[in-house]
Amino acid sequence: MIRPTSPLVAAGARPSIVCLALVCASPLAHAVDAEPILRLDGGLTLTPTVSLSSTYDDNIRARDSGEEASWISSVRPVLAFELPGDKVKSRLSYALDYKRYHASSRDDHTAHFVNAGSDLSFDVRNRLALQLDYSRTQNTAPDQQRVENDRPRQLDVGGTYTYGAPSATGQIRLSARESRLRYDNDTVVDGERLNADLERDSRTLGAAFLYRVAPTVQAVAEVRETSHSYLTEQSRDGDGRDLLLGAEWDVTAKTSGSLRVGRQQRRFDDSSVADRSGTTWALNMTWAPLTYSSFVFALRQAIDEGSDNASAIRARSSSVDWRHEWTGRIASTLGYQHAQRDYVGANTDRNDTTDTYRVGLSYSPRRWMDVGLNYAHTRNDSNRSDQSYSRNTFGVTLTMGF
User: Is the dihedral of CA 173, 121, 79, 156 positive or negative?
Assistant: First the structure.
């Protein structure tokens, strides 16, 4: 069955135009009830799935004028390994996503995604969750597409240690994450390799105290420290601090989610670059008034890492998705996302507002098969005319398990 998604761009990330128009704003996230095809001694399982899609995009380069349209065919096989256990649970998945642009073969590309993780339970009070994510993709961007597609490669490694039983009144949560962002671009623009100014190493350390105020609700006090080291754009080197208060809740099947509100600071090592600070918040909530109907809400305000000559970006976004199962085989999703990005710094004057509307319909003729139809309309309004655009995508997707 389908599940709605409402992802918001994480702090420090640079959302590509493809992400906003096709992935982050995707009206449907298909999931089939696939059975493992391989079971080994010890419990290791392998579950493969594959998605085939055909999408019509009327503005593949997200331009304000001179739009180019194309049909895009995609093949996405996924291999998922799982190793269950009482004390240790591990998982590993690999996905390959090949896209063919029928009107522009130079944009054909293959993306790779690797996700791995382990959940370790030492005893009832001590737990450790480890996670690794790697992606090598290709995205289009309106300001650079005329030269070469963006080719980001990112590695994230992190872990979270929790002290305190799941039902305890108080818990302590410690986290650490290392992130490395690189670009495989070769084109030189104005004496600099394309996207070299965005390459960086980042480290985030966090500590949170959770206090149970109700059987299914915990109050949270949290602090995060982040440092950024850029390979070439060293004027953006520096660190940040988030001081947050909030809550986490899981009220049976009715509603679940998390809320954080607080103060965010971004300090730069270069004294000529102005430090930034402001109020930050993040809400992610699922509400299911009926067993067959659910809503997903997401709100976010934060200071993100800069791009396009900006030292930082003040980002605000909100989204809502409604999923409704009409029968056991047919479901629909309606969604809307609004995002504002203000580029701040001495060398920039850019403000973008992006609205995305999406609708989708899914039919599951078999437990292991989903057929989806979707449509998305994206409009970006910017004070820079070359960054404004309108985009429509229509698509059909077939997802199968084995």
Answer: positive
Rg (CA), the chain: 22
CA angle 279, 285, 288 (to 5 degrees): 160
**Sign of the CA dihedral 378, 381, 384, 390?**
positive
Residues 6+ apart with CB under 8 A from 21: 57, 62, 356, 376, 378, 391, 393
| Interatomic CA distance for residues 48 and 32, integer angstroms | 11
Q: What is the pTM of this model?
A: 0.88
- Residue 52 CA to residue 36 CA, distance in Å, equals 20
Domains in the chain with CATH codes: 17-401 (2.40.160)
Q: One digit per residue, pLDDT tens: the chain, 402 residues?
A: 333 333 333 333 333 333 333 333 333 444 687 778 888 877 899 999 999 999 999 999 888 888 899 999 999 999 999 999 889 999 999 999 999 999 988 889 999 999 999 999 999 999 999 999 999 999 876 555 567 889 999 999 999 999 999 999 999 999 999 999 999 998 888 888 989 999 999 999 999 999 999 999 999 999 999 999 999 999 999 999 999 999 999 987 789 999 999 999 999 999 999 999 999 999 999 999 999 999 999 999 999 999 888 999 999 999 999 999 999 999 999 999 999 999 998 778 899 999 999 999 999 999 899 999 999 999 999 998 888 999 999 999 999 997
Phi, psi of 236 (to 5 degrees): -95, 0
